[in-house]
Amino acid sequence: MSRTILRGRVLTFVSEPQGRDDVGSYRYLEDGAVTIEDGKVLAVDDYAMRPVEGAIVIDHRPHLIMPGFIDCHVHYVQMQVIGTYAANLLEWLNDHTFIEEQRFAQQGHAGYIADKFFDEMLRQGTTTAVAYCSVHPASVDAFFAEANRRNLLMIAGKVMMDRNAPEALLDTAQRGYDETTALIARWQGTGRSHYAISPRFALTSTPEQLEAAATLMREHPDCYLQTHLSENDAEIAYAMELFPDAKDYTGIYEDFGLLGPKSLMGHSIHLSHRETAVMAETGAVAVFCPTSNLFLGSGLFDRDRLRLAGVTIAVASDIGGGTSYSMLKTLDEAYKVLQLRHQRLTPLNSFYMMTLGNARALGLEGRIGSIAPGHDADLVVLDASATPGMALRMETIDSLSDELFLLQTLGDDRSVVETYVAGTACKPSSGHARRGG
Ligand code: GUN
Ligand code: ZN
Asked: Is the pLDDT of residue 430 over 80?
């Protein structure tokens, strides 16, 4: 049985930070040892206390060793529409994205992009993502086959959409149900894979299809549900036209029984007090996608109002409406969105959100999102001096919190020294780690 010890500055959260200097919210070891065996964390302690005989020691000092990042909403099939020029969400979807997604009918294309997607995630230190595939089952097969080959913990599903899109992207309520059922049977629980039932949003699903999605949820309570909610004014108006009996946009999903603790509601920007209360009561998760919300001009997520109402909040890149694969850059933009709302996002809170916070939102906090004995050894190693500009700024920084803020503000994939998946180094074309023993 091979044992690996990662030596470095170990940082992991144990609770949501309350305020800028909440030292009780995290555990930090200045010269720490993360011992890994069989893909799992065996122990976390001071390096000096850890017997190293028989183990491979990888010395990452002076870098930070943290849990791998988690991205709670990303469209892997949109990698080639990132940065497409469009006035707003509906133009971006109709004129560009719905064209692009048609290419995923071909398994070969889906496999090509899936491979690039996981390379990119690992380059950015993201070890778990919740992904939308296209309407085509082949796009899901390509995704999970590659995720399993790389031993990644991934969550994904085929979008169900049976109206208001090009013919080539439509299924039917029955076909969406049948294909989703077959995909769940094929992939849920294989390797580290989890399935997300994925009615795309109220605009592209008939009432019959939302009903079918609810049936799938009841039949497969272990699966997630992901969809989009209240992103853009024109989208909201059209949703209310299509479902005139609903109280509001959230009410559409509520009426079909689609809200629950495993329901991941992308965007959730323009919610009324009633909608916020329903989200809190049902435990549905609001997924904040800052780079996308800015790029598409969708609006400013009201984190404090949702949090005060008791809504669980996750954070995500929303590639390809989003403009960065990096969770560091995603939280950098989250910070700016909240600045415009006069809400504070502390550096500790940012790093909590992209690790333990997102793991908790997914109900996976016993497996990922923190570095603790028995947890999966999905880790990222970060260098806050990765570029000359960062190194210069680091000369004036003497606290962990400020170092994290620098990583968030100026960092990107260049700050990711290594990414470990179940204990194995996986960052594409990396080679920074110093090996010792
Ligand atoms: N709403 C429905 N589909 C999409 C999508 O692909 N991206 C975004 N940002 N919003 C959506
Ligand atoms: Zn989305």
From this structure: no
